[in-house]
């Protein structure tokens, strides 16, 4: 059986960054991805939408600015460095970030596509990992495992036959021709879908946006607020009690659900333009409404909910519904065979260095990028912070410093 220092499960940006950084270490790693190619949120690669992170927060630069897998190197290879510089923008179009990820993935032989990890069992001084490929089943041995299985769309059971935002582009033609369409939810994805539908709609189409949030909240935190995306803050958060972390997480709702101010401005400007000639715009923006049911009856949708403060019933009839209801972490079934400790039924206990706590000592470690928000705070799903996380994980796997992570102190004391 082939032996590895680590097996990475899943190839989203987090484990892709891990594999890119591992190339210049003495470690022998392999990554298995169940899909036949790297696909990053393909349903939300809407033209004109941008990343929420600075271009230097690519897969490698904060850990190793000399890496050949940097975004700047991608731009140079793609013949776009000059135009990127002239453009003077710090943000990357989302479609281009996806191209960058594919460019990195194509160069890494350690990534195996069409390979689904179906089991991980303790064995000797590590784990036996079972992988299903087109050719059948194979097993490899790894000292450590890095879980990067990502997230899956979360749609309430009471929402019948709606389109989740993760499938927006696959359904866009149909949504654009529906006479009455509603987007349910707040957050960046909801705002982008609403804006996109609004821009393409004419005066004959109704496009509504319903959210339970009190207002359409902006993500803007200011420079000091952004310091929660720092190693100091992550350490501080992790050391708190579970209850304190829960309390703090609730106060960070805005970072999770807030909308990029540029997107909100674009929504406002589009609405303003549409009403410039005095036409009644066929769109309603409804806040503070908790939608609890979407029924699909005779090809149409009945959306029901309640106003959170007046308790008045809400009911709307639509021809299409888009649910911007978020994602849940993908926790593989096979973890049930491993002696993992859990903080709650769905939240595993994660140590400071991203390895899972176990009820009995294991020879190898199970690291995770997935299901970390409760243990490591809002930075858990931030692409920039994932680079530091990968450097920490690789140092742990190597048992020595392969990536120097100099502590860059934020101005705020946590
Ligand atoms: C539309 C959208 C835009 C976002 N934009 C930003 C942004 O601008 N900045 C930012 O910081 N964050 C952003 N995020 C948040 C976060 O960075 C992304 O969700 C990111 O894709 C998470 O990466 P990941 O590697 O955990 O998982 P994913 O991208 O979900 O990838 C996980 C992979 O694991 C594979 N897999 C699962 N199980 C197995 C298995 N058993 N065997 C093999 N393979 C398996 C899946 O097929 C999948 O390819 C965004 C999120 C969304 C939804």
Q: Can you summarize this structure?
A:
With 414 residues, the protein is α/β, with parallel strands linked by helices. It has helices at residues 13-22, 71-78, 81-87, 94-107, 168-177, 187-200, 222-225, 231-239, 242-251, 253-257, 261-274, 373-376, 383-398, and strands at 3-9, 29-32, 50-54, 91-93, 111-112, 116-123, 126-133, 136-147, 151-153, 163-164, 180-184, 206-210, 285-286, 289-297, 300-307, 313-318, 320-323, 327-329, 366-368. It folds into 2 domains: 2-150 and 330-398, 3-Layer(bba) Sandwich (FAD/NAD(P)-binding domain); 153-219 and 258-324, FAD/NAD(P)-binding domain (3-Layer(bba) Sandwich).
- The name CATH uses for the topology of the largest domain is FAD/NAD(P)-binding domain
State the shape. globular
- Give the number of DSSP strands: 19
CATH superfamily of the largest domain: FAD/NAD(P)-binding domain
The averaged pLDDT comes out at: 95
Q: Which regions have little confidence, pLDDT < 50, spanning 5+ residues?
A: none
Largest sheet: 7 strands, mixed
| Overall SS class | alpha/beta
Can you give the helix content as a percent range? 25-40%
- Ligand identities: flavin-adenine dinucleotide
**What is the name of the CATH class of the largest domain?**
Alpha Beta
């Amino acid at each position: 059986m082939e032996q590895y220092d680590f097996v990475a499960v899943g190839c989203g940006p987090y484990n892709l960054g891990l594999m890119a950084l591992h190339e210049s270490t003495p470690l022998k790693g392999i990554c298995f991805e169940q899909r036949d190619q790297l696909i990053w949120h393909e349903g939300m690669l809407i033209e004109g939408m941008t990343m929420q992170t600075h271009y230097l927060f690519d897969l490698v630069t904060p850990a190793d600015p000399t890496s050949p897998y940097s975004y700047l190197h991608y731009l140079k290879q793609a013949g776009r460095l000059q135009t990127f510089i002239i453009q003077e923008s710090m943000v990357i179009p989302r479609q281009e970030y996806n191209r960058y990820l594919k460019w990195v993935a194509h160069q890494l032989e350690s990534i195996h596509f069409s390979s689904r990890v179906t089991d991980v069992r303790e064995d000797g001084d590590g784990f036996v990992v079972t992988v299903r490929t087109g050719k059948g089943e194979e097993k490899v041995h790894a000292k450590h495992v890095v879980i990067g299985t990502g997230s899956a769309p979360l749609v309430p059971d009471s929402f019948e036959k709606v389109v989740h935002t993760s499938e927006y582009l696959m359904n866009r033609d149909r949504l654009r021709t529906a006479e009455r369409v509603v987007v349910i939810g707040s957050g960046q994805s909801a705002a982008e879908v609403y804006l996109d539908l609004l821009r393409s709609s004419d005066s004959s189409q109704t496009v509504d946006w319903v959210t339970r949030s009190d207002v359409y909240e902006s993500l803007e935190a200011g420079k000091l607020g952004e310091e929660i995306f720092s190693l100091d803050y992550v350490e501080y958060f992790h050391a708190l009690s579970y209850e304190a972390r829960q309390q703090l997480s609730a106060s960070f709702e805005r970072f999770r659900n807030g909308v990029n101010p540029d997107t909100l401005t674009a929504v406002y400007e589009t609405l303003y333009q549409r009403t410039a000639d005095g036409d009644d715009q066929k769109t309603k923006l409804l806040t503070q409404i908790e939608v609890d049911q979407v029924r699909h009856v005779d090809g149409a949708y009945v959306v029901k909910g309640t106003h959170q403060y007046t308790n008045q019933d809400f009911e709307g009839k639509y021809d299409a519904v888009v649910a911007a209801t978020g994602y849940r972490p993908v926790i593989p079934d096979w973890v049930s065979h491993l002696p993992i400790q859990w903080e709650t039924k769905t939240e595993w206990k994660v140590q400071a260095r991203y390895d899972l706590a176990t009820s009995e000592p294991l020879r190898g470690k199970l690291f995770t990028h997935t299901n970390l928000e409760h243990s490591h705070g809002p930075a858990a799903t931030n692409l920039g912070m994932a680079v530091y996380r990968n450097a920490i994980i690789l140092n742990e796997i190597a048992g020595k410093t392969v990536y120097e992570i100099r502590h860059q102190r934020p101005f705020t004391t946590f």
